[in-house]
Amino acid sequence: MLEQPNSDLMQRFGVKDIFQLTQVNKDRLTQVAKWVDQNNIKIHVDKTFSLDETAKVLDYVKDVHPRGKVVLEI
């Protein structure tokens, strides 16, 4: 989540929020990597940018609202 949920908007549209905390550790990341390698998890990449295009990435995420992951190649 990029920011705290807006309670006025949630009430206006009749939605609820939940808080979810995920602890990232080596074992969990290893398991996720295995699932990706086994094609059990598919990652949708919306667009890829080079490191030189970092400013464009921020504008793209803000203005376009991508339907997948936006990748910054290093």
Protein traits:
74 residues; alpha+beta; two-stranded parallel ribbon; 3 helices
Overall pLDDT level = 88
Looking across the biggest beta sheet, what order are the strands in? 1-2
Total DSSP helices: 3
Task: Point out poorly predicted stretches.
Answer: none
Shape category: extended
Major sheet attributes:
2 strands, parallel
Number of distinct beta strands = 2
Range of helix content: 40-55%
Structural class: alpha+beta
The value of Rg in angstroms is 16 Å
* Share of residues in strands: 5-15%
Ends distance: 24 Å
Order of helices and strands: HHEHE
Can you offer a commentary on this structure?
With 74 residues, this protein is an alpha+beta fold. The protein has a domain at 42-74. 41% of the residues lie in helices and 15% in strands. It contains three helices and two strands; from the N terminus they run ααβαβ. The protein has a two-stranded parallel sheet with strand order 1-2. Helix 3 links the parallel strand 1 (45-50) and strand 2. The mean pLDDT is 88.
Short overview:
The protein has 74 residues and is an alpha+beta fold. The chain has helices at 7-13, 26-37, 54-64; strands spanning 45-50, 69-73. Helix 3 links the parallel strand 1 and strand 2.
